[in-house]
Design a protein that fits this description.
Number of domains: 3
Order of helices and strands: HHHHH
Strand content: under 5%
Shape: elongated
Radius of gyration: 38 Å
Length: 170
């Protein structure tokens, strides 16, 4: 397109006769109109893109600063696709688990609800035990990191309290 435009300009400049001059001018006018139409279409497309992707600019995360809108959109779509795939896999896993539970219930001829309640209670108890052990670990680390005799005694008393052992605080 660019070469065609420059050839038309050169033909217009070098046209010697009056009739040829006007013919070349008409061709140049037509070419300029085509270029302007194309640029207006590109500007309209650009304006639509800007309008439809303004929300990307407004909701940019710090990681997206300096990125092109299209790249930010691509990253967001990839993240959402990954999350969607993970959720679909989790839904399938839960569906398979529910099917297995229904089969077990069908073989036994009774509800599996009491077993599920028992499992849920065991899960709660295990979570509580994990929290208790994490607290004891934190207290042991605090006792180990204590500087000086007094702070070591205080940290050790806290550890004894967590374990339910008798102690006398300094």
């Amino acid at each position: 397109m660019k070469q065609k435009f420059w050839r038309a300009i050169e033909a217009y400049r070098s046209s010697g006769g009056r009739e040829e001059h006007w013919r070349n001018r008409d061709a140049l006018d037509t070419l300029i109109d085509e270029i302007l139409d194309k640029s207006e279409a590109l500007k309209a497309a650009y304006d639509v893109w800007q309008d439809k992707t303004e929300w990307v600019q407004e909701t940019a995360t710090p990681r997206e600063l300096g990125m092109h809108r299209a790249d930010a959109l691509k990253d967001r779509i990839a993240l959402l696709k990954t999350r969607c795939d993970d959720l679909e896999a989790e839904a399938q896993r839960l569906s398979d688990h529910a099917t297995a539970l229904r089969e077990i219930a069908g073989r036994r001829g009774k509800s599996v609800m009491p077993e599920l309640v028992e499992l849920a209670n065991e899960n709660v108890a295990l979570r509580a035990r994990v929290l208790e052990l994490e607290n004891i670990k934190r207290l042991v680390m605090r006792s180990h990191a204590a500087k000086g005799y007094y702070h070591t005694q205080i940290a050790t008393c806290d550890l004894y309290d967590a374990c339910g052992l008798a102690n006398t605080r300094p």
